[in-house]
Amino acid sequence: MSKFGELISAQVPVLIDFYTEWNEPSLSMHPVIKDVAAALGDRAKVIKIDVDKNKELADALRIKGLPTLMIYKGGQMIWRKSGELDANSIIAIVQEQF
Questions:
Q1: What is the per-residue pLDDT across 30-42, written as a single tens digit (0 to 9) for each?
Q2: Residue 20 — φ and ψ, nearest 5°?
Q3: How far apart are CA 77 and CA 86, in angstroms?
Q4: Are the CB atoms for 57 and 4 separated by under 8 Å?
Q5: Nearest to 71 by CA among 24, 18, 1
Q6: Which long-range contacts (CB under 8 A, 24 or more apart) does 4-12 make?
Q7: What are the phi and psi torsion angles at 22 (to 5°)?
Q8: Cα angle 38-10-16, degrees, rounded to a multiple of 5
Q9: Within 13 A of 81's CA, how many CA atoms are on the CB side?
Q10: How far apart are CA 92 and CA 49, in angstroms?
Q11: What is the pTM of this model?
């Protein structure tokens, strides 16, 4: 989990999408997250984490619903939501953190 600490300590907002390959809402968010990453460019980091491959981290962060989106900045979680959102909503939330 020390790698996770490195990921979230960035001074730009870090959007993390926690997903699984078998969860339909998670799968439908893939193109949305891709659009968000393209729109934000290098002003933010966008990371996808498969909870099946990162069970310890998912448990530590109490990930229950999928997909779960989180935004970190400077090592602190500043926003969290479970469920689907559209790209424009996610982009607006991340841009508030610039």
A1: 999 999 999 999 9
A2: -135, 160
A3: 21
A4: yes
A5: 18
A6: 4/57, 5/75, 7/45, 7/47, 7/72, 8/72, 8/75, 8/77, 9/74, 9/75, 10/45, 10/72, 10/73, 10/74, 11/73, 11/74, 12/42, 12/43, 12/44, 12/45, 12/73, 12/98
A7: -105, -5
A8: 50
A9: 11
A10: 22
A11: 0.95
Tokens of 92: 């607006």
The 3-state secondary structure of the chain, one letter per residue: CHHHHHHHCCCCCEEEEEECCCCHHHHHHHHHHHHHHHHHHHHCEEEEEECCCCHHHHHHCCCCCCCEEEEEECCEEEEEEECCCCHHHHHHHHHCCC
Q: Which amino acid is at 44?
A: A
pLDDT at 2: 73
Amino acid at 95: Q
What the chain holds in terms of domains, given with CATH numbers, is: 2-95 (3.40.30.10)
**Length of the chain (residues):** 98
